[in-house]
Amino acid sequence: MNRLTSLFASLILSLLLAGAAFAADKVNINTADAATLAAVLNGIGPAKAEAIVAYRSENGPFRSADQLAEVRGIGLATVEKNRDLIVVTAAPAAAAPAPAR
């Protein structure tokens, strides 16, 4: 019986640790490429991920996760489903051109 209890405890611990590892995957929607967006976000495939990147290129960085709903093909339900996976921070600033001499 002790052996079975030990095995069961090990299994539970392994499942908890694996769950924590999957939960740690988050994505910054202002800096991630389409492949990363598609891999991390639920309900977002390659086409929608490309649409996110295109929207970001045309309209600038996202100010909030809710703004993702403005991307064609993505609704508020998809945003809500992924809210815990989405990070919104400022995109890195473009390098300023060197001054002319």
Explained architecture:
By secondary structure, the chain is mostly helical. It has helices at 2-23, 34-40, 46-59, 76-82; strands at residues 27-28, 86-87. Helix 2 (34-40) packs across helix 3 (46-59). The longest helix has 22 residues, at 2-23. The termini are far apart.
Topology:
Blueprint: H1 2-23, E1 27-28, H2 34-40, H3 46-59, H4 76-82, E2 86-87
Parallel strand pairs: 1-2
Helix pairs in contact: 2-3
List key phrases describing it.
101 residues, mainly alpha, two-stranded parallel sheet, 4 helices
- Helical content band: 40-55%
The computed structural class is mainly alpha
The description of the largest β-sheet is:
2 strands, parallel
Strand order of the largest sheet: 1-2
- Give the count of helical stretches: 4
The global form is elongated
Work out the strand percent. Answer: under 5%
Low-confidence stretches: 16-24
**What's the average pLDDT?**
82
Number of strands: 2
